[in-house]
Amino acid sequence: MWLIHTGTGNLREFVVDERPKEYAILSHCWTNNEVSHKQYQSQTHRDGYGFNKIQNCCRLASDQGIEWLWVDTCCIDKTSSSELAEAINSMFSWYEGASVCFVLLPDYDSTASTCENNLTRFSTNQSRSRQTKLHDSKWFTRGWTLQELLAPTKILFYDRNCVLFGCKRCLGPLLSAITKIDLEYLTKRKPLHFASIACRMSWASARSTTRIEDTAYALLGIFNVNMSLRYGEGIRAFARLQELILQRSDDDSLFAWRSTVRQDRYGLFAEHPVDFAFSANVVPIRRRSFPHTVTGRGVELFAP
User: Fold this and answer.
1) With contact defined as beta carbons under 8 Å apart, do 25 and 95 qualify?
2) In whole angstroms, what is the distance from residue 209 CA to residue 195 CA?
3) Which residues form the Heterokaryon incompatibility domain (predicted)?
4) Based on CB atoms within 10 Å of each CB, which residue in 51, 234, 263, 264 is the most buried?
């Protein structure tokens, strides 16, 4: 795991078991001007938006007395397939283990700078236009940011001017309204596995990723599974994710979906999380018979 020293700006690699107990982590939407691991190491691209974003996060972490920072753009060497696979399979736990997660929203402008102000501001009728603007932020539409919202305990939200306008605790009701995720899961009063598989899938139904395969890879931590990366396989990645979930879980709500596209033939598994768009209220459907089996010919089901 690579981390940035918030004082010097230098990258350092840690064995996961030996990583610092305290580190900050960034959640954001990528732009065309991000700094890669190689570029950061070679100290190039130091005058663009991507590098300024990293510097701002170093400052925010340092102000809170946190010495280390993780940023997905430059703390993963994506030229190494093994390092990329480890990072994607570990990402939920990395966000979960962070002391604080900074969410940067460059497409949102706020006039308040404290959680207390926002708790009042978002509870009034006059705030509805601001709620709408926050709802329109791209951050709420991306596949990867779902786990980045759910995993950390402490999240601080910053607007386009890097002004703090709220935290996950004080903005909880608003975040729940925007994401359609029960507040108890956002605040960790209930562990995620209490929500049915279908319900968790519904949280991702309105989100998208640049690469088709990332639709599945971005959900690994939410379903507590590990998975090999096979970029180029397309929608097969989401089918593989469902196969792994089927093997690990006794919750048959995995099959509680309906296609949003009219087809002549349907398979057992959904093709995309959007097929679970109407499954938010589905409760776990516990299997009492023999476990289902994934074989080379398909899935072997045992009816009760």
Assistant:
1) yes
2) 23
3) 23-148
4) 51
Question: 303 and 225 in contact (C-beta within 8 Å)?
Answer: no
C-alpha 16, offset from chain centre: 20
Task: Please state the φ and ψ torsions of residue 286, each to the nearest 5 degrees.
Answer: -75, 135
Query: Tens-digit pLDDT profile for the chain (304 aa)?
Result: 999 999 999 999 999 889 999 999 999 999 988 999 999 999 877 788 899 999 999 999 999 999 999 999 999 999 999 999 999 999 999 999 999 999 999 999 987 434 444 444 444 444 555 556 899 999 999 999 999 999 999 999 999 999 999 999 999 999 999 999 999 999 999 999 999 999 999 999 999 999 999 999 999 999 999 999 999 999 999 999 999 999 989 899 999 999 877 776 667 899 999 999 999 999 998 876 656 666 665 666 666 5
